[in-house]
Amino acid sequence: MTPSPPRGAQSSRRRFIRLAGGGVVLAAASPLAVIGCAAGMPTAALQPWSAPTDTLEIREFMLAYALLAPNPHNRQPWIADLREPRAITLFCDSDRLLPETDPFGRQIMIGCGAFLELAVQAAAQRGRAVQVSLFPDGEPPDQTLPRGVRVARLVFGEPGSAEPDPLFAQVLERRTHKGAYDNQRVVAAPLWQRLYRASAAQPSLMLGHVSESARMTALRHLTRTAFEIELLTPATYLESARLLRIGPTEIERHRDGISITGTMPRLLDAVGLFDRFEVPRRGTDAHRRMLDYWKPFETGSGYFWIATQGNRRGDQLAVGRAFVRAQLQATADGLSLHPLSQALQEFDAMREPRRTLHAALGLDPAAHTLQMLSRVGYALEPAGHSPRRALSDLLRA
Ligand SMILES: Cc1cc2nc3c(=O)[nH]c(=O)nc-3n(C[C@H](O)[C@H](O)[C@H](O)COP(=O)(O)O)c2cc1C
């Protein structure tokens, strides 16, 4: 942990940050994240976004695309075992869980589902169908962290056994855009329908959207309240703080987590005036500033959600597959889809917002599980990609 600066430095830090005003690019999601900015992002960390070559061995080709999947906090919680010829076994990486904000590994499992979907799409691009066998050791319980679980075994078919998926064209374009969206633009009805259709490739999911102004206002209030709870709860705040990667050196070293590329936080960090491990307290400047940084997350044209009856591990994987398909469809249609997961989280302090959110969407928390809630809209500025670890990092050969 970064040691706290002495008292004098604390007060000069406050002065300095106040002077910096809105110029700071440290932003807030879950509870710390960055408003993406390609400048300051080291090239090596973005290398996996260059099109993987067609000559790669089929399994490596599949994995080179799969590792681009959206996933919580960009933990990239996956290990791919290639020791069995002609098969891939996907494991959930025990070292990449989020025990505080995701105490049951539900979101981690959704990330693994998105990974599977992109692996299957990449194989189809090479004309191969994939037989996906989920949880070869049995479906793990839904309230225990899925440490080291064998998530799936993938076996691919003969050449010509699959047609390319049209959404695959968006895989290298997709990103989670965390900046401001246009509040004036409406998402036309056929575009919502396209999001539904893309997600409905996974059966049995409950899908919905919200675009009426009064309901959007209620969701904005709820998501902000939940964000504040996550921010002010030391264990959940610190879990995110440990995943901050400030500046190119840290980003390149880790190639995961929450990238901070803005000049001001880097400068403050370099001179010891930003202590990432200082938990904000209600009513302080730090708390107010964090709420300011949340503001772009209250922009957009609506919300898209995915829920399940029950909450089995297989459901969570299906949600991940559906969610990434929706994000790919959104990309094709010039839209952005940004998950806001705080109010869905299962730690104790979030119980009430979670219940209220389910009710606001017409869901019964005793029977249904809200799995993804994302704001939807037209981004005002372009955003860059987030880092990825190298393919070789996840392989067990
Ligand atoms: C299950 C899940 C939950 C997520 N929750 C949030 C969230 O609460 N806030 C946020 O800013 N991004 C959230 N994301 C998006 C991730 O931060 C993003 O996918 C990751 O940083 C990788 O970036 P990319 O999607 O641009 O490749 C979530 C993604 C998934 C799959």
How would you characterize this protein structure?
It contains 13 helices and 13 strands. By secondary structure, the protein is α+β, with helices and mostly antiparallel strands. Bound molecules: flavin mononucleotide.
Question: What's the gist of this structure?
Answer:
The protein has 397 residues and is an alpha+beta fold. 37% of the residues lie in helices and 15% in strands.
- Side by side, the strands of the main sheet go 5-6-4-3-13
Average pLDDT confidence is 90
Number of helices: 13
What gross morphology would you assign? Answer: globular
What small-molecule ligands were found? flavin mononucleotide
Please give the CATH architecture of the domain at 44-171 and 385-396: 3-Layer(aba) Sandwich
> In whole angstroms, how far apart are the ends?
34 Å
